[in-house]
Amino acid sequence: MKKYLKGFMVFCLMFSFIFTNLFGSINVIRGSETKGENSAPFEQVKGDGNETNKNQKTDKEKNDDVINKDDKKQENSKQTKKEQVSKKTKEAAAEEISLDFKSKKILKGQSYTLNVKFLPKGSKERDLIFKSENTKVASVSSNGVIKGINYGQTTIDIKTKDEKLNISVVIQVVPKYPTIKLKNYLSKSIKISWGKVSGISGYRIYYKTSKSGDYKYLTAVSKSDTYFVHRRLKSNKTYYYKVVSYVKSKDKNIYSTYKEKSLKAVSKSYVTVMLDPGHRGKYGRDYGAKGIDKKTWEVSLNDMFVSVLAKKLKKEGYNVIYTRKPYKKLSFKNLRELSKYANKKNPDLFVSIHHNSSTSKKAKGYAVYYSTYKKYLDNKGLYVKIYSKKYGSGRKYYKVSKIKYSKSGSPTIYFKFGKKTKKISPSTGLRYNIIDKSPCASAVNTKKAASYVSKEIKTSKILRPFEGGLVENDFIVTSETNAPSFMLEAGFVSNKSELNKLKNSKFRDKYTTFKGINKYFGVK
C-alpha cells in the first residue's frame, strides 16, 4: 500500500509541474502574437520559466500604462490650445479704448498725462491721435500730456489713426481750492476761515451734518473776504464744510476742488467783549456830565445803554464781561488802573460807552473815538499833532523822538520842531494827539471796529455824526488797552432835543451798536 501511495504522489507532482509550464508558455505565445512580436520569448520561457515570471508585466500594469499615456496626450493637447489662444489674443487688435474718468479738473499751469487703456486686456496697442477742442483753455501733446492754459472748460478727443476707435474726456482748468480752518467762535457757532486765493471771482461755502450726507449751499462770499461765521447751530453736533473758489467764464462759473473739514459745535462762547459803562468812579460819586434838564446824569444814560447792548450781544452768542456792571460803582482809582484790568482780562474787543457835553447848546451828534497809538504794544513810528496856532492847529505832524512817563503814568512827549527838540505834556494845557503811522495789528483792528460801528450809526440816521463821526484820539481807555478798542460818545446831554431821544427806551433799543460789532467779528 505504501508503494502505491508513493507512486501516486510522484505522479501528482509531475503532472502539476508539466501543467504549469505548459499553460505559462501558451500565455506568453498569445501575448507575443497579439503584439506581433517574434517567438523568441517562447524559447526563453521554455529554457527558464522562473525568470519569465519576474520580468513580464501583468495585464493590470499594462492597462495602467495605456491610461497614463492617454492622460499625458490630453494634457499636452490642452496646453497647446492655451498657448494658441494666448498667442492669438496678443496678436489681436484692440476692440475698445478707455479712461478711468469722464471728466477731470486741473490747475492753471498744471500738466497731466492721460492713461489710455486698450481692451480687451493684453490686446495689441495702437497709435493714438489727441486733440483739444479749445487750445486756449488746455493743450494736449501727441503723447497725451494735457496742460492747463486758462480758466475754462474744453474737451479732449482721442482716436486711433484709422479712426475706428475713439473716446473723449472733459477737462476743466480751475483755480486753487482754499485751505480752510474751523474753530468754535460765538456760542453754538463755527468760524470758517481760509487763505486768500488770487485771481478769482469769489467763494462759495457748503455744509452737511453727517459724513455720508449731501452738501447744502450755505452762502457766497466776496473775493476779498477770508472768513464766515456759521451761527445758530445745534450744540454737540458735528458739522462738515467745504469752501470752493470760482471764476466766471463766459456764461458759467468754474469751481475749484475742495478739502473737507469738520468740527463739533459747542455752547461755550470763545469771543469776549468787555463793556465799560463810563464814570461812577471815586467811590461811586463820579456821575459824569449833567444833562440840560438839570436832573439827568450822564452815568445813568451810560448804564442804560450798556444794559441794552449787553443783552443783545449775549443773545448773539458773545461772552460779555464788564469793567463794572451797570448801576454798580467802579472799583478802580483811575482810568489807568481800569486799562490794566482790561489788559489782564484780555478781551477780543473793548467798548467804552459815554455821553458828550458842551458849553454850546447847539452841539449834537455821535462820535466814535479810536487810537492808532498802543502804549504797551508799539512805540515806533509815532508823531504828535498839537492844536495850537504855533504848531499848525492840529494840521501838522511832528516826529516823536521819545516819551517819558511819570509815576502816575502821565506822559511827557519830546518831538522835533525844526532843528530844535520841544516837549509837551498834559501840564502845558495844550491839546494834543499821538498818532502811530506804522500801527500794530491791534491798532489796525481798532480802527476797523470803530469804522464799522460809526458807519452803522451813520447809515441808520438815528443821529448826525459829530466831527465826522470817526475821530482819532489817544484817550487812556483807547491807547492804554491792548485789545482793539473804541469809545462811543453816544450823544450830547447838553442838547435838549438829543437828550430827550437818549432818555427814550425805544430810541435806545434802535441805537445800540451790536450790528457794527457783529460785522467786525464777521457775523452776519
Give the secondary structure arrangement, pairings included.
Elements: H1 2-35, H2 40-47, H3 49-55, H4 59-91, E1 96-98, E2 103-107, E3 111-113, E4 117-119, E5 128-132, E6 138-140, E7 145-148, E8 152-160, E9 166-174, E10 180-184, E11 190-194, E12 202-208, E13 216-222, E14 227-230, E15 238-249, E16 252-255, E17 261-264, E18 272-277, H5 298-316, E19 319-322, H6 335-345, E20 349-356, E21 366-370, E22 382-386, E23 398-405, E24 411-417, E25 420-424, E26 432-436, H7 441-460, E27 465-472, H8 476-479, E28 485-492, H9 496-503, H10 505-511, H11 514-520
Parallel strand pairs: 2-9, 18-19, 18-20, 20-28, 21-27
Antiparallel strand pairs: 1-4, 3-7, 5-8, 6-7, 8-9, 10-11, 11-14, 12-13, 12-15, 15-16, 15-17, 21-28, 22-23, 22-26, 23-24, 24-25
Structural commentary:
Helix 7 runs antiparallel to helix 11. The longest helix is centred in the N-terminal third of the chain and has 34 residues. It is built from eleven helices and 28 strands. Among the domains are: 79 residues, Immunoglobulin-like; 85 residues, Immunoglobulins (Immunoglobulin-like); 189 residues, Aminopeptidase, CATH 3.40.630.40.
